[in-house]
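job 3f2a | input accepted
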Amino acid sequence: MPRKNVIRKSALSPTVLIAGGAGFIGSHLSEALLLQDARVIVLDNFKTGRDFYIGHLLTHPKFALYDADINVGFPPEIESVDYVIHLAGLEEYLYSEEQVNLDALLTNAVGTKNLLDLANRSHAKFLLASSIYVYQGMMSQITLDSYFGRTNIEEKKYSATEAKRYAEALVWEYYKKNDTNVRIMRLPEVYGPKMDLEASGNLGRLLKELMDGKDLNIYGEGVEKEHYVYVNDVVSGIVRALFNDRTVGKIYSLIPPEPYSVLEIAFLLKTLANREIKVEFKQKIKEMEPRQAYPDTSNLKDLRWEIKTSFKDGIIKTLMWYGYDVNQHSFKPAKFIEEKNREKTLIDSLTTVEGKVSPEAENELISSLSNVAEFHTPEEIKGKKEKKPFPLAEAIKGKISIFKNLFKKEGRSQTKPQSIPPAGKSRNKIMLSIVPAVLFALILLTVGIPSFMSYAYAKKATSDIREVPVLLSQFKTTEAQTKANSAFQNFSKSQRFFSQLGWAFSLTGNRDMYNSSSKVLSSATYSSRAAYYFSKAAVPFSSMWETIKPNSEKEFSAEEFEKYRSDFQTARNSFQLAQAEYKNVDKDDLPGPLKEQITEYENILSAAGQNLDLFADGMNSLPDIIGIDSSKKYLILFQNNNELRPTGGFIGSYALLELEKGKIKNLSIDDIYNPDGQIDVRELETPESPAPIKEFLKEEKLYLRNANWNPSFPQSAREIQDLYYLITGTKTDGVIAVDLYFAKNMLDVTGPLFLTAYNEEISASNLYERTQFHSEFNYENGSDQKRSFLTVLGSKLLEKMFALPSGQLPVFWSKMYENLEQRHMQIYLTNNPFGAVLQREGWDGSLAGVAKDYLYIVNSNLGGNKANYFVRNTVDYNIMSETRDGLLRGNLTLTYEHAGEGTAWPGGIYTNYVRILTQEGSKLTGARIVYPDREEDIFGNMIITKAGKYNSFETPVLIEPQKRVQLKVTYDLPIGLSINANNMNYSLFWQKQPGTQDDKFSFKFEPPFGLETGQSSFDGTLTGDKQFNIALDPK
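job 3f2a | predicted structure (1035 res):
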């Protein structure tokens, strides 16, 4: 490819730009992409790249190489590309040039920005190659001389880590603010042909020693572990992530299932050596101990990526590429490691038993004992007995007799001495009485006291940490910080005392129990530290709650969030460390009492991870949402679910909420018929109504009250915003929809409201009745009756919510979360990054985007009445396969029972327009309606259309009062969901319609012939979205 040619995107083949493409990974990636017939453009400044890595590609017609520094800019020939891969600055710390650190920082800062700008201009997909070690790092607090570490290796390694963190932050900013199509690929140590032997952790060093004919050196015990991935597997992961539309905005960590220790690597290389070599253990080089990285790999299933090259095969291929004559033998280092650990454990145990307690340790023990009174009740100090024995005591019960052997003389004669001096006999009696006392004191000092102190501190810490979530939900951030700090201090002390018991566990054969228990304590320590900093970061949310109240005179600024952002980052880092420690815990090894509580801790870790992500997004987006810099206006739709519509109910009323500088500037509530009336009065041109509304409601124009017809709430919300702007000229920044279940849940928290203007009490039990009485009874178009009642009710409810005592706030937030999860509240935001969070959590009311089987029943009342109050729904869904090719068929039965009496309003005939949303590619095979006295085949009358990406099977169904009607539909699922040798799993996502609450469901999966499964039948109440996953096995 001549360099003078202008490079721009082409429809003939994808154009891929690789920054740092002349390096180890980049050269392999270039070769793979060229084999896929892509055009490859490589930019490299050859600081770490090598000419000979890609020299053989220069003659390829679709390959171009530019010696360019991405920090400065790009060659003018490059106009646009389809894909941008950022590999530059990935391995700079591995070399010794003095300017390498600066290059790494600039390449990951300025260079990353330049590449992101190119991706934006080109509308290209962008991938950043980062490192799993972004979790690690250190910074000096007092001097710049050793800012990133004490040694040259540490400085280069952790400055590169910081550079990658900054590069990831830039990618995140472009994704959030510019909607750039980005993804991040975090890599571990990569090895393979062309690797630099000065790199790739301990593996590179050991390979170099092997090929130089030297013995293999292990510094320290050799138990530290690193993740290694063969370069071809890395290339596969990058390609899969780049050419997959579902990876946008995702972070993937390419790591193998298990890391390898230095000891394992050394003995693997020893078996592959072509001569006799030794493994030498040497004193460890003094440097900072890196923490093992355990990133989340759960989303790798999106890429369908897995390790193809085993570690041993990869090593053999690498050695052969370097021309080394490999002697291939079996590899069994695990036994050696086990023996080594057993040897070390025995040495540690004997050393502990034979050693003496230092004066410093004695003083520390005395000091610790004096601190017990800080958190124990007088009864506990006096020796109140615990109902449950301490696990360690149970573990070593009956095994203390091992100490007797330490004092037993071997080969002692059993013959009675002929003569013993009286004085010696007396001394022997004294010794016999002293030895048990010394033994008891020794056990007390080395086992009893550490056990008790560890247990006591852990118990107090657990009590403290349980209070933190409650205090935070009450916005008592100062008290939460105090409790979290106390928990951190006590867990740390518990961990310190527990560490003194390692020898005892080893001596009694319970070393695994010790290791797992120690990891639990370590994880809990990090968790409490995360809770402390999270409590600090939550301070601005407490200020916002006080500021937003209508009667508040306080002001709020975006700086409130910025001030505490570093605290949140510290909390997040500590939490990641807590997760990493917990991943090393084997629950089967834990003692009984701890095993019972570990599930609760697991759930806390899971919930905390989700909340931290939500909190991070909230810190970034909330200032804009609450109008800190500019006024924000939101439409609030009050949907009456007794007249059910696709997004929750008929829109009878609405409110306009205006926020400015974090405060409620205005809240006005109005009847929906007032703006709708303007459409006719001013003869405004609006879109046509959907066909079913035309047919049953006889309305040609689309009005606000019917604009929530699209099952996807964001789509309906945009339609409503456009109509509202057409009518009022007011632009809104979002739409919030609530139904009567939302109001009922809020009244459950606030209690009944007394409306003085109406001289009556409104409660959760009479809300529907009184709202309908004041809203509909003798209501005339143009009157203020409905608006006045809802204004008073809404204002009073808002006033009561903001006046809730702190003790009720946890229940309040719990109800709000319940409303979002059960779709009684939906939120759509215009041009705000938090909208992506709402979609991710399922809180924006959009159609879930899944590739599995999908079912969404959408009922719509088009009878102009409130008949849904009297109708009970039941849904039965049965999946079976009747063909040899494994094609699945769905049998769906919708049962409607009308308990109303007569046709008088607000009841009457339920005119229901039913939509059944199924996965795209499904094919309708039958449909019929079963009435009490007859059955009607409606297959030929079914309407088949699209709702988003899904197929929609639609038909009207009329249910008279006191009647039971069934709609039965059958359809074939898409071929891609068929059960066969390549797919032995079935999954279903069942989406709940907003505005519904008590619909009953049953689901049954009938395995194809010759296969079986576990539980395959489910039933219950559809209170939220449901997911079912069924694995199949041959009989």
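job 3f2a | Residues 632-841 form a domain with the Aminopeptidase fold (CATH 3.40.630).
job 3f2a | closed
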